[in-house]
Design a protein that fits this description.
Strand content: 25-35%
Structural class: alpha+beta
Largest sheet: 8 strands, mixed
Number of helices: 13
Radius of gyration: 25 Å
Shape: globular
Amino acid sequence: MKIPYLKKKSEIKSCHNVQWEDNYSWIHQKNILEVLQDKTKLDPEVKRYLDEENLYAEHHLKDTKNLQKKLFDEIKGRIKLDDESLPYKDHTYEYWTKTTAIGNYSIKLRKKIDTNDIEEIWNGDEEKAKLKTEYFGVGDLEISNNDKYLGYSLDTKGSEYYTIFIRDIKSKKIITKEIPETSGGITFSLDDKYIFYSKLDENHRARKIYRHTIGNLNKEDELIFEEKTEAFTVALSISSDEKYYFINTSDHNTSEQYYFGIDEKKPVPKLIMTREKGILYSVNSWDGKFYNHTNKNAEDFKIDLSDSLVNQNWKTFISPKDEVLIGGLTFLNNWIIRSETSNALDKLFIRNISTDVEEELIFSDEKIYVPGVSLTQRDRNTDNIYLGYSSPKTPSRVYLYNLSSKSKKLVKEQEIPSGHKSDDYIVERVEFKSHDGRLVPLTITRHKKTIINGSANLLLYGYGSYGSSMSPSFSSTRLSLIDRDIIWATAHIRGGMEKGMKWWKEGKLTNKKNTFEDYIYAAKYLIDNKYSSKKKIIGMGGSAGGLLMGAAVNQAPELFLGIIMAVPFVDSLTTNLDHSLPLTVGEFDEFGNAKDNKQHFDYIYSYAPYNNIKKMDYPHILITTSLSDNRVLFDEPAKFTAKLREYKTDNNVLLLKTEMNAGHGGKSGRDGAIEEIAIDYAFALKISKKI
């Protein structure tokens, strides 16, 4: 089939006395945020190119159609389709969700405590059918405190512009005006007269918080708070003791917080502490005290305590530890629960408030696992919690755990209907030296039958941005590759927070290349230790993980058999120079500000995947994107593909697949998500010659 080519229209760009040519910049439309909401505004020539690439991808994946179907059935076969979540007790009702075999979206249910009358208050599939929309994204689903109203927010394009609706549960009627162009979150006031929400500005940034009177059909909503700094976005929450509303405004590494009482008739947000660059803090209140989770004078966080916000006198409650990330607190009347992360592993700690004794909760013999805790009810006067864990080989298990008696009862286990034997799999945690001697954790999962002699294919997954840690949790989907003799390795590279804030700082701004080096050295370690060989490794990453893939493949293409990039951030210099785009300004402290800082410009220019494509052989590459993605515009992977076609000197497959009705997270619905995984895995198996 004819290879698609995007027309070249030369544009000479310049910044800081540096000039470069961009032959494909013309595909970026000035009204791009309008295009995200209305695809009919897409340039017809660009649409034609995306359609051609889709046909080309379909042609080259035609021989995997049966395999895709098999993988889809296999992955779906590991999911208990008729499933229910554990109940959460509110004041009057127990609430839970369920999924069905035929549905793609969840159903929300409730029953009055101590009765058996179950009421369905939300059915995602029915709501989607009513709207006759292909994409159906639910931002939030909240119940009012009096249990009368259902608040929900919907995105029907994938562009993350959410419209809020408030419905009377009994009559099923909308009882207030629709609120468009919000960030999606809904907070009911405790008296159920109002909701609070954040509105998106013209650059898709949430910088204003409004209070809406329930029942208001016409009037303007009341502006409660406005953030003036473009890089900051806002959110509102209720304190654990339900005495205060907290407004948090922040970018990725600096925050500021305001509070007002739940009884204030006209809310007046009061500043807690003035923002300081590089300082994150988050205050909560419980039992007449205020707890501050902060990195001030504590690189990996600590928790301070004060009796007052008016006369603040902060004392250390949980001390900082080097390269151990101190997590936040969960409160019960008699207990405080908290977490720590070190070396890409999480731990849970329980403190008895009356004795002030703290102990670690250990509830698995496995060395590599992810613990989790959640509340069973809104009333905090209880000793019971839900305690769960999973590992790369063990499906999730949740226990009802009594903190006082230390008794536990298994209440939910992730079922794998098609069958699963944990003992068939081997999980290893190793550390390897990166380019500068730093030890980087690596989690490796393989089938016990897979031979370690360099003959196995291996999928190397990475992300490494925004301080996001990759947890070694269970994934039933990955078994489709692992069972076919493909080892799965997750590299806990710098840019995440697996080893604390320092780990993040060493992988951002002008340290960003450490992220790429860590990943490349992970591949080299796996080759040197016979887990795989050159040209047998498949790289995989999405979004900022797509930036990682682009940088790694430009730098060390010889290591890889193939690369799978989802919604990849590959034209990072162009995006960083455009301050009108939704995320750019808020990410100056993550990636730098190339427009106003020559050092940042030179550094980003030196690694930005689009600007560093070379005339050389590249491995097989599958790139997926979505037309309505506002986080990483489809421009980026489209331009990257076009330029790669022009430069690459090999005959390997290069495919660009664009979802025309989806956003950053891909297709909506359970089946849609599985279909996308099946395509990625079919591509991996095709290039590994395992069809």
